[in-house]
């Protein structure tokens, strides 16, 4: 009884002593409020590796129970005696099952490697967090994609390009000495969703990141991440041999250049024995590259690939290129440049292709390169950070966007040749497979700038592990873990239509790239004065008195011809083009009749209004959840939803005001007039918008 | 009994559910681990104002007890009946006393205003946190300085100039909508140490901060801070009438310019009725100012003062000026320019003078303007952020530095005319008094980049409230509150000599401004190639074959003549100049005999070695404290001490290598040789050092 009283006293002190912001979002989806206690000896590990230790620690942190839970590798004698179906698990899959081990009934978490067990431990926690039980448990899963990688667009001065969650998580200044405990929590969060690689620095890279001090800093991070199965990669500046090596050229066929990269790579591997390799953005948006020396992207990639090959490293070479001197439709340029290189890349090169052919718009048709390079492994690049979707303050769950692209049918080898099958290697039998997400992570306390942005990090990881997962399944998991099982239905209800709402109020019906210049925040469809034609929104929407949209059929740029014939045929005809992509491929008269029976102009207004209505509805749903959500996360989300509501109206009104100035049409009956005149919208300025380093 | 079991279950869940980083330093010195519970009704407030509400909430958060504690303003009938000595408390002082109120024995916290009660509530918490009891409590205090202000050098893009604790606390992008709970915690921390004003933006100001959107953002912060007695100020860019108003001039005597500032000021006061006023850096380091129009600093300040006067606002006008065209000793320029303006400033102008005449060096003699402008209120500006003292990673407790300057005797009105008496108005009977500290606060989780840097924020506030407080008294309070009473002695022992150690290993014996260019990190005494002479370290140390130091006597720049005669006499003579300031005022032969009996050169080496020895000793002391400090704060501090140790050696070795290249002298007997040759030290580069926006 006295002991109990002491407990209470301790509880009171602890309650006071802990942070004033216990529910500030830092804990992400790893809350483990299972409420079950576990005996200290209830978690048993067989063998001792750093990954097994962190797996056991994570389970202990979760207070799951009752035990015993045994973590044991497949080669453990007792496990082997069970003859479980483990061979298909590969080196990352796991199996969790209620078994009799020796003479005890236990929950077994097993795998062929300690990394597999770590993923199993997190899967077990997720199972319990989402309402599962240990009774007769039987879970197994193997990732379908080998490289599941975050791309951090983090500059060495801490600014995150297109980052809306504070400065870079990497405090380069205090590295390698100080290993912020937060780095471990970052690794935990990634491991919990299966992410196994991270590119530390911006694809717009500085050569400094390859100097000895920065290699030592990267090595310190690699040490922290290693037990969590996460490899470190670096973005490489192609001209580094000039800037750091004092060479006169970075020509990939110059032996001195190749030797410099080999020596540099050896230096990196001495510090980071399991270094993953390089990510390269070359000859794109001003970055140096092999084209500067009249060499191909394959020449550049293969030279780097040769340097990392002896160490087992890879090169991720981005296909995001467009040349300022090339008058061709920007949407065509990556295909035009890379398609002829199919089969020319070394086998430790993987070409990284954005989900769409332009640049992470709220919606884009899938990139025509998917399915078009059967001899080359392609990895897809999604943008988790919402550069074009309202930054951190707009709620847009990207799971449906990821799923939309992954399930898109390239028809490269007939019906069912989905992007997912290109990516997971099953379509063309590639061993090297990958998926990249541009991270939305920064040093903000809640990591991603808002609680709901955390769902996009989560969804990327889960769908990278299994690209056939449904967006709503993933949303359900996330909502139960992040809030509580009781609010899953309304929260998932808000999430599932939220990205479509952004499409509706920003860029309906296949429009894209209408954002204001530079920062990409807010509407700028009128912008027409930038130096390069394809920087201007008017380049993309091509609105005039008679109609709107980019003709990418044979009468226009013929970008549709880059798709497989079955797809190209559909996209070439407005009648068989999905309405959601209509203005991407066609210049359509304002008076065109749509499926709804409305003509194009009122249909567009209808979409704008649907977008703002959805946001208003999310606010109502969230208001109703107030009693069920902690005050701090509820209030911040409510505040951001109010911002989104205001800005959705702004997008709608500015867009409508501009289109009316072009088409001369009246507002459809019943539609609200814009709150301001067009000049007011054009006059808006945002001089210090985040994520846009000058 | 069942209730008790439920308690335990709750405790277990809470322990899991709270943040993984409960001891990450976020809670500063406000930990309140008194362990005493208090009945819910034990804190009683009489009256209801926002400040009273937050005072009561703070006490409840602290779980002090037993009650009852009564918060009541002096005019409360029961309080008035006690005839307590309240008139001397002014509008910010407090009185705490065990009294009989009506018929009850209570702890009374009273004051003439609710702000005074708020300060009393924090004083009561501090009293309990540092081991005091409620029995027969009798505390009273009144601040000696009216304006106790933080200067945030925060740019609108989030970069903090000379900031080493992450980006700006102000997330301008999500303001005014989102009022981060952290803003409230910032206000709590400041109120707990008596800070009552904050300048939100960098003195190197952008005109944007005066536009309507940014006024609305500042107003949201002012709303959060108001209950905590904290007024908001803005740094004003002097040329804003041109940049925002479209005027052709910013001439302070131009009626249009004055009218623009009046209208702008009125606009600000409509949004922030208790706006504090403007801080101005004019005609300094490239900033615009009245001198651009051949007007005086008084002309500029008075024009702004007229704009804020109707609203009760003030102007803080910085005396930190030096002209690139002026060949005069930089240390003399502020005095030369401002001394003749004494008596010419409006009575709501206060001139803000840095503690020393150069720029926040590890040690500087007090600024000659203190005591030299009796008709003008002067406020002192300290730098809390450690621009020149090793950034966030070096442990340097600045309390002794603050105390050293505040207790320095200007002799302006005879012996005892301390800087503190100039600042608190008692020497020259000024009503307007002030003290400013350049904040070391950012969005890092621990606010100041390290736990020990929090002590400098704390010390600034406490010594601003009472500039006669001893540095070790303040350190003792802080250590007890931040760690625990058990570690006060060793922690304070480490702290008290730490700033002198930095002086020793960086700039001993009155040297200064020897830091590398731009970022001011690490040694650069050899730098001699910068465009302006006074940017070069060689300008300051003037070392040559025969000696070292800046002759500021009559044979040199005669800067000593700017001090009052009694002070000037001492500084003019090497024999009566304190050795700690020797090379500041004199060019001294390397062979000069010092008080220790050593000659100057071995004396310098002795100081370098003393500095590194002190750091080594701090590491030992901290190692011994490992069992007494939570793991996260202990580890981070230990890591930073290791960095400081390495860098103290670097400073010593680089400096010695350089001086030997100048003086041609051998290393004193027993002194260790530098680890590298001079070329190695000169080759060090830090391309992305924090706090140095380009």
Write structural notes for this entry.
Two copies of one chain form a homodimer. Chain A has helices at 2-17, 50-62, 77-80, 114-129, 181-192, 212-225, 240-243, 255-271, 297-308, 330-338, 399-406, 419-423, 451-465, 471-482, 488-496, 498-506, 537-541, 565-572, 582-585, 600-624, 631-663, 678-683; strands at 43-45, 69-73, 94-101, 104-111, 138-141, 147-151, 197-199, 231-235, 277-280, 314-318, 349-354, 378-383, 434-438, 547-548, 588-589. In chain A, 56% of the residues are buried. Chain A has 694 residues and is an alpha/beta fold. In chain A, helix 20 packs antiparallel against helix 21 (631-663). Chains A and B meet through helix 1, helix 5 and helix 21 of A and helix 1, helix 5 and helix 21 of B.
Short description:
Chain A is α/β, with parallel strands linked by helices. Chain A is built from 22 helices and 15 strands.
């Amino acid at each position: 009884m006295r002991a109990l009283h002491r407990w209470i006293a301790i509880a009171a002190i602890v309650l006071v002593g802990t942070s004033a912001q216990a529910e500030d979002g830092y804990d992400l989806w790893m809350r483990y409020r299972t409420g079950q206690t576990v005996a200290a000896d209830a978690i048993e590990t067989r063998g001792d590796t750093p990954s097994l230790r962190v797996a056991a620690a994570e389970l202990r942190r979760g207070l799951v129970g009752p035990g015993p839970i045994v973590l044991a590798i497949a080669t453990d004698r007792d496990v082997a005696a069970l003859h479980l179906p483990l061979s298909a698990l590969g080196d990352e899959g796991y199996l969790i099952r209620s078994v009799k081990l020796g003479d005890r009934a236990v929950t077994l978490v097993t795998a062929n490697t300690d990394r597999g067990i770590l993923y199993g431990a997190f899967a077990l926690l997720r199972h319990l967090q989402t309402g599962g039980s240990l009774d007769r448990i039987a879970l197994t899963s193997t990732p379908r994609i080998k490289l599941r990688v975050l791309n951090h667009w983090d500059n060495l001065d801490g600014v995150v390009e297109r980052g809306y969650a504070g400065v870079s998580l990497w405090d380069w200044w205090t590295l390698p000495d100080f290993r912020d405990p937060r780095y471990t929590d970052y690794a935990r969060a990634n491991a919990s969703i299966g992410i196994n690689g991270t590119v530390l620095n911006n694809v717009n890279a500085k050569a400094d990141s390859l100097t000895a001090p920065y290699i030592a800093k990267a090595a310190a991070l690699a040490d922290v991440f290693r037990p969590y199965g996460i490899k470190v990669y670096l973005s490489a500046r192609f001209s580094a041999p000039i800037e750091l090596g004092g060479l006169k050229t970075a020509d990939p066929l110059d032996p001195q250049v190749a030797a410099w990269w080999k020596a540099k790579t050896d230096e990196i591997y001495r510090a980071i024995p399991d270094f993953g390799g390089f990510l390269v953005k070359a000859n794109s948006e001003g970055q140096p590259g092999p084209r500067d020396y009249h060499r191909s992207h394959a020449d550049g990639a293969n030279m780097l690939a040769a340097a990392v090959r002896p160490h087992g490293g890879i090169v991720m070479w981005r296909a995001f290129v467009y040349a300022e001197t090339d008058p061709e439709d920007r949407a065509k340029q990556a295909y035009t440049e890379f398609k002829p290189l199919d089969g020319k890349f070394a086998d430790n090169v993987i070409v990284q292709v954005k989900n769409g052919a332009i640049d992470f718009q709220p919606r884009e048709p899938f990139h025509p390169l998917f399915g078009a390079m059967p001899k080359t492994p392609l990895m897809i690049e999604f943008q988790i950070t919402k550069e074009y979707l309202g930054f951190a303050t707009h709620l847009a769950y990207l799971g449906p966007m990821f799923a939309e692209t992954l399930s898109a049918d390239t028809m490269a080898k007939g019906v069912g040749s989905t992007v997912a099958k290109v990516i997971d290697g099953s379509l063309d039998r590639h061993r090297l497979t990958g998926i990249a997400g541009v991270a939305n992570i920064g040093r903000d306390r809640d990591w991603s700038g808002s609680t709901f942005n955390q769902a996009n990090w989560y969804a990327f990881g889960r769908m990278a592990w299994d690209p056939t997962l449904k967006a709503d399944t993933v949303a359900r998991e996330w909502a139960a873990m992040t809030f509580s099982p009781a609010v899953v239905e309304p929260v998932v209800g808000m999430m599932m239509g939220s990205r479509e709402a952004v499409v509706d109020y920003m860029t309906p019906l296949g429009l894209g790239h209408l954002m204001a210049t530079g920062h990409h925040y807010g509407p700028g469809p009128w912008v027409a004065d930038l130096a390069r034609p394809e920087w201007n929104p008017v380049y993309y929407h091509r609105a005039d008195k008679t109609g709107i949209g980019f003709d990418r059929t044979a009468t226009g740029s013929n970008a549709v011809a880059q798709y497989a014939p079955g797809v190209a045929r559909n996209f070439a005809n407005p009648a068989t083009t999905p309405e959601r992509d209509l203005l991407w491929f066609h210049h359509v008269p304002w008076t065109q009749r749509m499926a709804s029976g409305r003509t194009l102009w009122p249909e567009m207004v209808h979409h704008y209004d649907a977008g703002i209505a959805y946001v208003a509805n999310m606010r109502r749903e969230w208001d109703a959840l107030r009693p069920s959500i902690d005050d701090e996360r509820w209030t911040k989300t409510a505040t951001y939803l109010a911002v989104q509501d205001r800005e959705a109206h702004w997008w709608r009104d500015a867009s409508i005001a501009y289109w009316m100035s072009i088409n001369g049409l009246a507002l459809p009956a019943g539609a609200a007039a814009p709150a301001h005149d067009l000049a007011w919208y054009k006059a808006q300025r945002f001089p210090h918008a985040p994520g846009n380093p000058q």
